[in-house]
Amino acid sequence: MTEKRLAGGELNYPGIGSTESGQPPAGFPCLVSKTYLGEGHAVYRRVAQGILSWELQRRSGLRVRTESGVVIPGARVVSGFGVGPFRINAPCEVVWVRQPEAKEGPQSAGFGYGTLPGHPARGEEAFEAEIDAQGRVFLKITAFSRHANWFYKAGGPVARAAQRHVTSRYIEGARQLAAGES
After folding, report:
1. SS3 category, 133
2. What is the CATH number of the domain that holds 174?
3. Could you list the residue range(s) of the whole structural domain that residue 87 is in?
4. Which of 51, 163, 61, 46 is nearest to 111 (CA)?
5. Count of domains for the chain
6. Which of 5, 89, 115, 124 has the fewest Cβ atoms within 10 Å of its own Cβ atom?
7. Using one digit for the tens of pLDDT, what is the confidence trace for 109-153?
8. 75 contacts 88 by C-beta, under 8 angstroms
9. Is 153 inside any structural domain?
């Protein structure tokens, strides 16, 4: 008997894994957001742990249903926002994961996930905690996407506003993680 997946279908865009290399596929607009969160490895580890346990998504106000309590390659997740019939669900699959290194020093940890059928966009988004040589900690969000169909394309300005809003919520969630808030 085959295991029932949380979301069906296959990844539906070119350049799978491109958020890890930073090179989006041709024809896909790319957004990179980098936000300072604090100083030191304790802050870095809290943010990385929050990213790799779906806590960043939860703190951003998204409803998160996933096949795995921690982020692992191939795990599927359906996040959503809205209320009742006005809820938008966004099924994705994790395409890469980078764990924090045991050593101190510059590094990054996080993951990227790509869209599955039913998502309002086609593309990929990545969330990384970064620490530089000076011990400064940042949240880096990289995304490339296009609208999945004519319906979402027609709502382009609303979709862009929603993306900006969700990104601001991710940043606020990362600030909470950095501060050690429960």
Report:
1. coil
2. 3.30.530.20
3. 30-179
4. 51
5. 1
6. 5
7. 999 999 998 877 889 999 999 999 999 999 999 998 876 554 445
8. no
9. yes
